[in-house]
Amino acid sequence: MVETTTNWFEACRVEDAVQNGGVCVKCGEEQIALFYFTRRNEWYATQNLCPHRRQMALSRGMIGSVGEDPKIACPFHKKTFSLSTGECLSGDECAIQTYPVKVEDGFVYIGLQN
Amino acid sequence: MNQKTVVVIGNGMVGHKFCEKLAAKSDKFRIIVFGEEPRRAYDRVHLSEYFNGKTAEDLSLSHENWYNEQNIILHLGDPVKEIDRENKTIHSSKGLILNYDYLILATGSSAFVPDIPGVDKDGVFVYRTIEDLELIKNYALNAKIGSVLGGGLLGLEAAKALIDLNLKETHVIEFAPRLMPRQIDSAGSQMLQTKLSTLGLSIYTNKGTSSIEGENRIEYLKFNDGSELKTDILVISAGIRPRDELAKLCGIEVGTRGGILVNEAMQTSDPSVFAIGECALFNHNIYGLIAPGYEMAEVVAANLCEGDKTFNGFDMSTKLKLIGVDVASFGDPFITEPDSRSILFEDTHKGIYKRINISNDGKYLLGGILIGEAEAYNMLLQTVNNKIALPPNPEDLILGSRGGSSQTENAGLAGLPDDALICSCEGVSKGSICNAVSLEGCESVDAIKKCTKAGTGCGGCIPMVKDLMVHTMKENGKYIRNVVCEHFQLSRQELYDLIKIHNLKSYEQVLDNVGKGDGCEICKPLVSSLLASIWNDMILKRGNDTAQDSNDRFLANIQKGGTYSVVPRIPGGEIKPEKLVIIGEVAEKYGLYTKITGGQRIDMFGAHLSDLPLIWEELIAAGFESGHAYGKALRTVKSCVGSTWCRFGLHDSVSYAIRIEERYRGLRAPHKLKSAVSGCIRECAEAQSKDFGIIATEKGWNLYVCGNGGSKPQHALLLASDVDSDTCIKYIDRFLMFYIRTADPLTRTAPWLNKMEGGIEYLRNVVVNDSLGMAAQWEIEMQNIVNSYQCEWKTAIEDPEIRKRFNHFVNAPEEKDPSIKFDEMRGQKKAANWTTA
Questions:
Q1: pTM recorded for the entire structure
Q2: Please, are residues B148 and B170 in contact by the beta-carbon 8 Å criterion?
Q3: Which residues of A touch B (CB under 8 A)?
Q4: pLDDT tier, B166 (very low <50, low <70, confident <90, very high otherwise)
Q5: SS in 3 state form for B532-588?
Q6: Which of A47, B343, B488, B555 has the fewest beta carbons under 10 Å from its own?
Q7: Residue B339: pLDDT above 50?
């Protein structure tokens, strides 16, 4: 059994995040989309790249729900992905990477696996 | 092979239907068809739609290969000229000689042309075939005043065709004391006449025409009473005459006043020869409607296949829309005391007349007439035909039930027996429609049409088919409303009203009050658009920003690669040189690709998200404002240069375009809106391809609406002519508010109109004649929106909270997205191509 450690990356302050929407976080060379689902009081993080046309765009998309499952729709062609599992909900695009999020002392952290 | 040969003479609607029926029942027959016209059978009932943009192919009853696929031999443009009954052969005009076992005469009818001196002059036409329509269309190009001789059903159809050709005046002349004498009574005719007059038709009854005057071509009509009427074109529609000449020639018995005599099996005096449709005379009657013609086709087809069917006369009930006015007549419309009692309802304010005739004991409905409103027609017809017992207050049938439950409509549907005939053209019963829904899974009218053929004839039963479908689906526990998405079990129109009634101002409020769940990419932009249409608040106000479609959220169009394009408003396409210089300087400074758009403005591509506020700061300082190229909103009002420079220009189209663009700028709608103003009929601004387009005339402006470019181009239709500038704007106010209020999401004005029952006539009634009584309210609502206009970009750059959103990285606001790549082309940049995973 390989031990994985979670490295918590400080993304932004809570008030910098967009309510019921997303922002893009620069994390080294990577871009991560961070979503503050204020309505459900939940946080989600995914890759910012939409796999459909490889556009850095998911953070500018619209969030919502299908049944109970939270989702994100890419602004380019409205491909939707589950925010909880990363699975593509419209068509057969490959799934997107998701990351854990925690909030402490007014700061938002994204969990990266080492 | 022991195949029998069936020769069909005539390829009209009934002849075609006969082929369909016989081919479907049996393959024992060799079918050969001769048609006089050059094209396959087409829908003559909806002939006037040919002037509304439908093509001959659209009107065709079969697709190109149908006859081939059915192994039917079709000779078009080759009328039969002789029948040799002794040798059972026919001779065609092109010289074919063929044997038959059975001969079907489906020769139809021709227009009856009364013997009036001058009928042979140029400019006098009949209204029967597509060829007739083409002749009329060409001649009407040089005509201003048109007249129709005959105020029957076909005459009024012909009058509609003339209206559609944009003639200045259209007159209808009827010899009898009332319009549609076979279908409606005098009071009904009076109401119809009043209604049609308000729509621009001049109607004369009790008027006999004595001669058609003019040198070579028609110039005016002379009447028996000594009066005269100037007219450039005359369409004669004074009745039909059965085409029985071929039958007569070979000695088959015909009636003294025309028509081929047939028995109840549609057999003529020669047992191997049958006649069906408008050429057949049964029981002293010629049946000039499509449904009985189809029934005759069914009788013959069934009997050739050893069936045992008879024709027993036919219900001549009918419902149609004449120039936008509903007219229906059913059962026995004229029966009076002492044989029955009548209930009459007359509303001269709304132009509605209804009459029902009930049996003396008050138990049964015998017939009636509906003018101006005929929604109840199908139900009333069913009540007559199925002898359904009347309710205790039969007046409810035409007045609606006052007080108490309003479930009568559906209760009526449920009460119909399964064998009740719903579509009389195709003979489809209630039972087969319900089965199509329950067992075949048909859940749209189109699917039912395909499966059962119901509604494919005259189309009159379609509302009832739809009600039956909805009713059956409801009974099966199916969910049928046209709702937005899983978060709102409401239609767009319902949401519009609820937002207004509950005074809801943000997406979250709407979701909390009338929705459920957490929203999605379908309902968010839709609700945002409604909020903008209703309240006209700044769309990026906190709480609304993330519910906007991506383009609205960043007030710019996202382009390939993730950059944005910037379009400042250039009203009417007029711009000063110094402002052109500013655009050039801004584009150079921010490295933007520039291109002139189709709407007479300049688009700058390739702007980074974080540059957008900076770009707009400079543009606004120089006096520009947002062009709303990103929104489902008014885009541009294109114009030609007009009378200020152009030697042909009638009015100043540029000034008017600017006035209109500034009035409606930023107006949010179900879809984008485009407009244009042309200074004369040369139409350089292409106004007839716009959602609303205006063309200068000698006397004012012509207003056209519901044109679209895009994937399904459609020409705009004339809504009002020769109106002054202020009236024109009033009409546009009403038109736009009606559209915003009632269109389905993402529906442009053309498909919105296409779906509207009653089409342009109905729309004209609503907008010009204020038939819904909404005009004043809509004008006020529009004025409120106009008054509360603000440039979104100006508000955005002045608000630090909003400006903050225009950075790519939340944690590195000064950095741009490093993944953005450009290529070069013709000395400018272009977005790098898509790459796929």
A1: 0.54
A2: yes
A3: 11-12, 16-21, 23-26, 31, 34, 37, 39-40, 51-57, 60-67, 70-71, 73, 75-76, 78, 80, 93-94
A4: confident
A5: HHHHCCCCCCCCCHHHCCHHHHCCCEECHHHCEEECECCHHHCCCHHHHHHHHHHHH
A6: B343
A7: yes
Lookup result for tokens 């029948």: B83
For chain A, give percent helix, strand, coil, nearest 5.
Answer: 10, 55, 40
Distance from B560 to chain A by nearest Cα, in Å? 8
Which of A13, A15, A20 best probes binding to B when mutated, by most B CB atoms within 10 angstroms? A20
- B292 token code pair: 């009985």
* CA gyration radius, chain B: 32
B833 or B601: whose pLDDT is higher? B601
**Interface probe with B: pick from A34, A37, A55, most Cβ of B within 10 Å:** A55
- In sequence order, the 6+-apart residues with CB closer than 8 A to the CB of B822 are B561, B606, B829, B830, B831, B832
ipTM value? 0.93
* pLDDT tier for residue B410 given thresholds of 50, 70 and 90: very low
Closest partner CB to A12 (pick from B486, B810, B835): B810
Whole-number pLDDT of residue B755: 78
Taking alpha carbons only, the member of B621, B622, B618, B579 closest to residue B602 is: B579
Instruction: Tell me phi and psi for residue B587, to 5 degrees.
Output: -60, -40
pLDDT at B401: 53
| Residues of A whose CB is below 8 A from B517 | 64-65, 67
Q: Which residues contact B330 (CB under 8 A, 6 or more apart)?
A: B315, B317, B318, B319, B367, B368, B377, B380, B381, B384
Q: Answer whether B82's CB lies under 8 Å from B250's CB.
A: yes
- Among A34, A51, A65, beta carbon nearest to B520: A65
